Amino acid sequence: MEGVSAEACSLAGHLQLGNLIAVWDDNHITIDGDTNQAFTEDVLKRYESYGWHVVTVEDGDNDLEGIAAAIKACQEVKDKPSLIKLKTTIGYGSLQEGTHGVHGSPLKAADIKQLKAKFGFNPEESFAVAQEVYDLCHKVSAEGAAKESEWNKLFAKYGEEYKAEHDDLARRQTGDLPEGWEKNLPVYTPADDAVASRKLSEIVLNKIYQAIPELIGGSADLTGSNLTRWKGAIDFQPPSTGLGDYTGRYIRFGVREHGMGAILNGMAAYGTVLPYGGTFLNFVSYAAGAIRLSALSQIRAIWVATHDSIGLGEDGPTHQPIETLAHFRALPNCMVWRPADGNENSAAYYVALTSKHTPSIIALSRQNLPQLEGSIIDKAAKGGYVLHEEENADITLASTGSEVCICIDAVKELAAKHNIKARVVSLPCWEVFDAQPKEYRLSVFPDGIPSLSVEVMSTMGWERYTHEQFGLNRFGASGPYKDVYKKFEFTPEGIAKRAIATIDFWKDVPNVRSPINRAFQQLI
Amino acid sequence: MEGVSAEACSLAGHLQLGNLIAVWDDNHITIDGDTNQAFTEDVLKRYESYGWHVVTVEDGDNDLEGIAAAIKACQEVKDKPSLIKLKTTIGYGSLQEGTHGVHGSPLKAADIKQLKAKFGFNPEESFAVAQEVYDLCHKVSAEGAAKESEWNKLFAKYGEEYKAEHDDLARRQTGDLPEGWEKNLPVYTPADDAVASRKLSEIVLNKIYQAIPELIGGSADLTGSNLTRWKGAIDFQPPSTGLGDYTGRYIRFGVREHGMGAILNGMAAYGTVLPYGGTFLNFVSYAAGAIRLSALSQIRAIWVATHDSIGLGEDGPTHQPIETLAHFRALPNCMVWRPADGNENSAAYYVALTSKHTPSIIALSRQNLPQLEGSIIDKAAKGGYVLHEEENADITLASTGSEVCICIDAVKELAAKHNIKARVVSLPCWEVFDAQPKEYRLSVFPDGIPSLSVEVMSTMGWERYTHEQFGLNRFGASGPYKDVYKKFEFTPEGIAKRAIATIDFWKDVPNVRSPINRAFQQLI
After folding, report:
1. Which of A112, A294, B4, B116 would be A359's cystine partner, CB 3.0–4.6 Å?
2. ipTM for the whole complex
3. Which of residues 255-274 of B touch A (CB under 8 A)?
4. What's the whole-model pTM score?
5. B498 contact residues in A (CB cutoff 8 A)
6. Among B193, B192, B205, which residue's Cα sits nearest to residue B231?
7. Active site residue A413
């Protein structure tokens, strides 16, 4: 019933994934009772409409040969995924068989007894395993060991004939990247052009795709906006379509964010590919369920999340994230990156690609961002660092992504017009910053200096780092991005105004304590 | 392609919604280009599998009569929803017709010119409207006014014959609830039994469903767990199924959270019903897209979100929300309630039901919660209040839901073993609390007293209210709920330990400033 399966299965049909066989345990029961209360569609017809091959096993409770035959038939269909409808009885043999009573509760003692008797077990014995079961398990185990040993020999022989391919596959299985790949990450200086960070992301993909052959990805129908496709990429498509082939490393996911997230998880779990997917940051939320599983299952999947704020402009509030960063920053084991320029973007990719057990969401701008003085890949890779230092500073401005450069302009405004010295902290990834030693974090947010965060979305959570917050705890507005930023005062003047209010408010407090100081540390 | 439409349309087919006609603008183009890159399923066959009636209009660009005939044919099908496949050309008439080039960019001047010439307009005129268009609009407008006037007369006449029904419908259209409905909300005293808050929610539904005839809702296949069905409710089902009828006010949504969210929005937008939907709190995230639209569109939809923490026990981390409250607390115009007992639950329902322009998520426990001394509906309806006061308190403990009663036990522990005086604040809804006058909020979180938040999930955002946070910034664990709470030290002792650490850490700071004090207020 869940839409995510509709998205994934429609795409699987389009891609003609002949190696995929799904078994549907059709017991006609959900938690609420009989499926006919809410689910009376013709499922096989639906899968046929997706381009799947479908088979039915009438007696899924007993017909083991029928099941084996169905699997065999499906394996022979090479150009379509297959669905086996296995008609079964939930709680088969129990006194409650065929009812939702057996879904979530343990069987009663009397029921277990009659069930054991029915299937030829001793009803008086508990946790008893017959010798013939042990024997069968040992036999199967030995067979498996023999097959594994056989495969290992074959793979070793393969290594003799095809050393490069063998070593590549062996390396991929460890999750390590090819040696030296990181030399491809671009490094910028302030003399370089202002570029949208989505474009910076595209540049990285173009520079690393050859060095990292396991990199495979695509977009949920926003390729030209997400800039997720490197030059000359081949689409992963059935050759018969004439649109690509199965060597292709670019996937057209369609408008299916949740399905894409689940597919990224599946590919990463398989273990020899490193998947990424693109959409607008605001629509990453559609895949919340899949990303939660990435984090819980410690899966390396990367989201290229462009159009990351009200800076996307005219599309307006339906497309402008407010709560999204807070949502995923609150998710354990999930890195949310929001790079401010080219070096920070390289840092985001470096950490995302080398974190084997953590998913990443890289939030990227639609609008151009200048290359900043003081941004350094190694520093950004710590999740947060001092981008602009001042001796005897009056205030710390902390920010991420497209607002960092406005903070830099606010520093000039504060110095020129108000004789105020402001330092600037860039905090592209909280999850990574929180893992740094406290001493380092305190050097970034030192005691004695009041601080103000600047980020054009929900202020939720910034209180961990700064004394005051400037954000957007309401929905955005539609208009050219500069007008929208101006409307909400995300300008050097608007930031300066709030910096002055912050200094004024905290001036009575002697040696202001940094929020980094806490009675006990519990963030990660 | 989006799964949410698959969920909603499958249910619409099951429910045989003959009044529903969907028009599919099938122009074969998505943002990435031709739909054949990702979407080659047989859509009409899929809709037939859902039980829909389907029609095709071959020339949707020109065949206006064909479109009218198709709509008429669909109106005649009373027991099935209908899908009209309208084969069209995107950017019809433009030089770029039939390509994705016309999706997101304005047409070039030369293209507009030839397009106007092609359709018989003067290519040199801009923003020109012909007199015949004005005439037609005026004619249609007059016809509409006449029809409205006719309907108003009919409705007035209906009021003469069926006064109660007429007044009920008129009232529903305003969004106001029937006078006196709130007298049905239960009030509790500490002598009353400990009850799970999901059960408290069920009690409220049972008490109010007769007083509020527009209340309609259901569950995404968790009826027995969410306790969303009042006694004697009739299921909303096609009469032919024998499972209910169309007077039914209980909806079996199936395992379709996102579809349920979208359906709640649609029903609320229609304006004469007040919809609610149930699922586990953790799975509310599946409907993030729909809830975002509830908030943005100012829609009153209520989520009954049970099993709201690691307190659900054995289902484990896949079912235990960590980031969910932070996610929806960061969403503008969305109330997240987490009542601690019966009175707070009545307050949550009171505010949720009377907030005409705001969705609510009511987070409810699986485990029993005692009725608390000091909990009062009116106070809880402010979003936060002092549940337990102490003179010259050493610390404020702030909490929500199932942890509030543990804080009360921690107060006793702190007094008995450590001679520490702790006050307790219950904060069932941040969104509502943040809207209270600053003076009130400061009385709840006063200057001079260090504070500690206690909530068994992400601590994100609690820094707004308290100096220190005790939460769970990691995934939970599977086990009986008492064991899981103990493992993570959500016990009176565990809270007391952190309260002592908090007091100790803040003792050097004279007259500790409450986090409510801010240089500028920007939370709502």
Report:
1. A294
2. 0.97
3. 255-259
4. 0.97
5. 519-520
6. B205
7. no
